[in-house]
Amino acid sequence: MIGVLASGEGTNLQALLDAGLPVVAVASNKPGVRALDRAEAAGVATGVFPLEEYGNREERDGALGLWLSEQGAEVAVLAGYMHLLTAPFLELFPDRIVNVHPSLLPKYPGMHAIEEALAAGETSTGATVHFVDEGIDSGPIIGQVRVAIFESDTIDTLRQRIQSVEHWLLPGCISLYLEGKVWP
């Protein structure tokens, strides 16, 4: 009953699969990404929805959301999905879209959270799992974990430490949601 959206490697998708969560479909905006390979290896339906094949983002998001629904998805999880979703998708999954983000929201929303935390000289950042609304990383927070920033950190070393936290935080938060213990 979980539909996952991913744009890259799919390590958070793999964490959901490894946790035994009921992933029924995986969609991507990019063909050929590792996340799709991971889904196929697990026997999960896959779909690719490149923006350039649609008239606009709203049309693409509507088709994407409809496909996930047809696959039996009741909840959408953004696991490294790098496009903002528009109203046609949001309306298909009201209060049932969850995202993982590499910062302690509300600090550093958007695509460059790790870079911004390093540039600001922060001593810590973290990972956040939150519900998706029409804003940019602005929905209600389900869970957060702080991650230290060391003087020797690079974007890559910090990203790896944050991802290792995301790999248990996201499945844990999704489990709580599926059990009815958290809601937006």
Furnish the topology, listing elements before pairings.
Elements: E1 2-5, H1 11-18, E2 23-28, H2 34-41, E3 45-48, H3 57-70, E4 75-78, H4 87-92, E5 97-101, H5 113-119, E6 124-131, E7 141-148, H6 155-178
Parallel strand pairs: 1-2, 1-4, 2-3, 4-5
Antiparallel strand pairs: 5-6, 6-7
Helix pairs in contact: 1-6
Summarize the structure.
Helix content is 36%, strand content 21%. With 184 residues, the chain is an alpha/beta fold.
Q: What does the overall shape look like?
A: globular
Query: What is the terminal-to-terminal distance?
Result: 18 Å
CATH architecture descriptor of the largest domain: 3-Layer(aba) Sandwich
Beta-strand residue fraction: 15-25%
Low-confidence stretches are none
* Largest sheet composition: 7 strands, mixed
Order of helices and strands: EHEHEHEHEHEEH
Give the integer mean of the pLDDT values: 97
The name of the CATH superfamily of the largest domain reads Formyl transferase, N-terminal domain
- Counted up, domains total 2
Determine the number of helices (DSSP H or I, runs of at least 4 residues). 6
Structure write-up:
The chain is an alpha/beta fold and 184 residues long. The chain has two domains: 1-94, Rossmann fold, CATH 3.40.50; 99-184, Formyl transferase, N-terminal domain (Rossmann fold). The protein has helices at residues 11-18, 34-41, 57-70, 87-92, 113-119, 155-178; strands at residues 2-5, 23-28, 45-48, 75-78, 97-101, 124-131, 141-148. Strands 3-2-1-4-5-6-7 form a seven-stranded mixed sheet, with helices on both faces. Helix 2 links the parallel strand 2 and strand 3. The longest helix has 24 residues, at 155-178. It is globular and about 45 Å long. The two termini are 18 Å apart.
